[in-house]
Design goal:
mainly alpha; globular; disordered N terminus
Length: 432
């Protein structure tokens, strides 16, 4: 077998990836604003934990529907148009938060944000499948997925500053406007490899070196046919069991540090910055690790499975948070768990592109993402009920301990179920 090495001039695929990274950064920066403004908005609108959970549920429910709808839309119109439409709508929705006057307005704004933000990952994974060979896709996914953590790092720095100087309304407006700038860059520079005039022939051959050649028969495979294959359901199970945990980390961690450790969110929060900084390492490291194992000769599925097991085990310590009292020790444990989620997610998403034709990647990512977000619809309500109950009893930390326990076992349980689904070899995808 002839081994094809990376070309010396390989700037184009990494330049395209940088645009996806930037979009993912904006995606998480926009959605993180609500969690950081939670204490301010609770005081202004007199929300209970249950009220806030309804708003989170509105986001996750619309995100679930948007995942499938946007995945199909992106496969139909292509990465460039699909990504642009998604980001324009979510930027306007984010800005719209600053103009609402009541709780119902926030429900509507979060619904619009969820529907449109759901297009980010189907478009991003499709872009990676277009621009990278399989052996580099986990690394590429980890790199763009680290944008989620960069957004989460920037949010605790930017939001308190804008809030302190201009108020919560302008915080939503300023953060939301960043996406409109990205649109200009995306529309000017993004092309599929086949359409790029700046891509060298050498790099194009490298990108396509371990991909199946596209055929007319492959393009005729209906989405319903893909439901018969294990990779679709293994991906969906991974999303169902771990996405709700990530929503908790994203939407409730700021409130957790306020409730338990009394930190002031009108100032940059060092624990949150450290936690979300760690997720960048997890995202890039998770992608790098499996890609490195593959380059060392490991079979692709084995490299992905071992890497995902490692990250599943890294989340387990968070279930023992009730035995920890020092804020910095808990910060480290949570940082490991959130970093592990990003490493887990980078490899989980890459498994779809490993096994399916590029034309259907967004649709399957959208289907699995829809189910993961659907699971996340119920979990925020559970969180709200638990926290309200323990808050009334004067022991809100006890409520958080229950949620951390669930988080600690979710990833290893998901890994075991995925392994059970994949216990036998996958049937060959039909192309006629």
């Amino acid at each position: 077998m002839i081994k094809i090495h990376p070309p010396k001039k390989q700037n184009m695929r990494w330049w395209m990836l940088s645009l996806v990274f930037l979009a993912t950064t904006i995606n998480y920066l926009d959605r993180q604003v609500m969690g950081l403004l939670k204490p301010t908005l609770e005081a202004e609108f007199h929300w209970t934990e249950k009220d806030y959970s309804y708003i989170v549920m509105a986001f996750t429910a619309s995100y679930a529907l948007g995942y499938l709808a946007m995945g199909r839309f992106i496969d139909r119109v292509g990465t460039k148009i699909g990504y642009a439409v998604s980001l324009i709508i979510w930027s306007l929705a984010s800005i719209g938060h600053g103009f609402v006057k009541n709780t119902f307005g926030f429900l509507l704004a979060r619904t619009a944000l969820g529907l449109s933000e759901a297009g980010n990952f189907p478009a991003a994974i499709k872009s990676v499948a277009e621009w990278f060979p399989k052996k580099e896709r986990a690394l590429a996914t980890g790199l763009f997925n680290s944008g989620a953590t960069v957004g989460a790092i920037l949010a605790p720095v930017l939001v308190p500053w804008i809030l302190g100087h201009y108020g919560w309304q302008q915080t939503f407006v300023w953060i939301g406007a960043a996406g409109l700038i990205w649109i200009i860059l995306w529309w000017k520079f993004y092309r599929a490899p086949e359409q790029s005039k700046k891509l060298t022939h050498e790099e194009y051959q490298y990108i396509k070196s371990d991909q199946d050649a596209p055929t007319e028969e492959q393009s005729k495979v209906p989405l319903s046919e893909l439901f018969k294959y294990k990779v679709t359901w293994a991906f969906a199970i991974g999303k169902i069991m771990t996405d709700p945990i990530w929503y908790f980390f994203m939407f409730w961690l700021p409130a957790y540090f306020v409730d338990v450790f009394k930190i002031d969110l009108t100032k940059p929060s060092l624990p949150l910055i450290l936690i979300y900084s760690g997720t960048t390492i997890g995202s890039i490291g998770g992608g790098y690790l499996s890609s490195w194992l593959i380059k060392k000769g490991w079979e692709i599925n084995k490299a992905r499975n071992i890497t995902m097991l490692l990250f599943a085990l890294m989340v387990v310590p968070v279930m023992f948070s009730k035995y920890l009292e020092n804020m910095w020790v808990i910060t480290i444990v949570i940082a490991l768990a959130t970093a592990a989620h990003q490493g887990w997610g980078a490899n989980l998403m890459t498994t779809v592109g490993d096994r399916l034709p590029n034309k259907y990647v967004s649709s399957v990512i959208g289907f699995g993402g829809m189910l993961g977000s659907a699971a996340g619809i119920i979990f925020p309500l559970f969180i709200g009920i638990i926290l309200d109950t323990f808050k009334k009893a004067g022991n809100i930390n006890g409520g958080y301990n229950i949620i951390f326990f669930i988080a600690g076992i979710s990833y290893i349980a998901a890994w075991l179920i995925i392994r059970f689904i994949n216990r036998k070899p996958e049937n060959k995808i039909k192309t006629n």
